[in-house]
Amino acid sequence: MTQSLRQLIAGNWKMHGTTAFASDLAGSLADKASAAGNNGVDMLLCPPSPLIAAVRGAIGESGIALGGQDCHAAEQGAHTGDISATMLADAGCSYVIVGHSERRADHAEDDAVVKAKAAAAQASNLVPVICIGETLAEREAGRAVEVVTGQLRGSVPEGASASNIVIAYEPVWAIGTGRVPTLADIAEVHDAVRAALADIAGDAEKVRILYGGSVKPENAAEILAVGNVNGALVGGASLKADDFWGIAEAAA
Ligand code: 13P
C-alpha cells in the first residue's frame, strides 16, 4: 500500500554553492522537470539560506519545491545567526529539514530540540523533514532499530500526520561515505519506523519515509523499490543536475 505514495526526492545541498552555482543547478533541474511534465515524483531543493532567493527564481513554475536546512524553534528574537520557520516560509519555502545528524552532532541538538523545531515549522505551515539515524557503533551493537524508533518518538511533535511531517532515515555512517546498508537492513528500519508511526502520527500509513545516505543514480532504483521507502534525501549527488535528475528518474 505504501508503495503507492508519491515519492519525494529531496536535495540537501548542505554548505555548498554560490549564487551563480545555485541559479545554474536549479535552473537546469527546472528545465528538466518542466520538459518531463508531471512524472509522478515530487522534487525538493534545500539550499543554504543565502541561496534560497536565487533557487526560488530559478525553479519558477517548474513544480520543484523549496526548503530550508534548519530553523530555530522560536518565531523571532535575539538569536544571532539563526533563522525562523516564518522567515523560510516568507522566502518561499514549503519544507525544512530538522534534526539532520550534522546538526545533532555539530550543534548538540537532541530530540527535544528537534521536536520543538518541527513544531515551529508546522506552525508556519512548513512540512518538517525530520531526520533520524543510528551511528556505526549503534548499528554494530545491534541497536539500529531501537535508536531510530527512539529518536522518532522523541522528535515528532504531537498532532503530526501524513500532511504535516516527512521522516528521513539517514544512517550516520552512510552519509557521504559511499557505504549503504543492505536493502534488507533498509527495509527493516523503514518497516519499524512505519510501525512506530502508528502510535504517534495520524494517517501513519501515508507518512512519507525517505532514505538518505550515499544515494546515487546507480543505486537509487533498488533503494526506492524497497517497501516503505517513499523517497530519498540526497546530499552529494544533489549538487550535480544529471545525478539528481537521474535519482528522480529512478523514482518515477
Ligand atoms: P550524501 O548523499 O552525501 O551521503 O548525504 C546524505 C545526507 O546527509 C542528506 O541529508
Could you walk me through the main structural features you see in this protein, from its secondary elements to its overall organization?
The structure is a single chain. This protein has a single domain, classed as TIM Barrel (Alpha-Beta Barrel). The chain is of the alpha/beta class. The radius of gyration is 17 Å and the shape is globular. An 8-stranded parallel β-barrel has the order 1-2-3-4-5-6-7-8, surrounded by 6 helices. The mean pLDDT is 97. The site of 1,3-dihydroxyacetonephosphate has 14 residues, from strand 8.
User: H/E series, N to C?
Assistant: EHEHEHEHHEHHEHEHEH
Overall 3D shape: globular
Q: What is the CATH third-level topology name? A: TIM Barrel
Oligomer: single chain
List keywords for this structure.
10 helices; 42% helix; TIM Barrel; binds 1,3-dihydroxyacetonephosphate; 8 strands; 252 residues; alpha/beta; single chain; globular; eight-stranded parallel beta barrel
List the helices and strands and how they pair.
Layout (H helix, E strand, L loop, with lengths): L6 E6 L6 H18 L4 E6 L5 H8 L5 E4 L16 H6 L4 E4 L2 H6 L4 H13 L3 E6 L3 H5 L3 H12 L10 E4 L13 H18 L7 E5 L4 H8 L6 E4 L6 H11 L1
Helix pairs in contact: 1-2, 1-10, 5-7, 7-8, 9-10
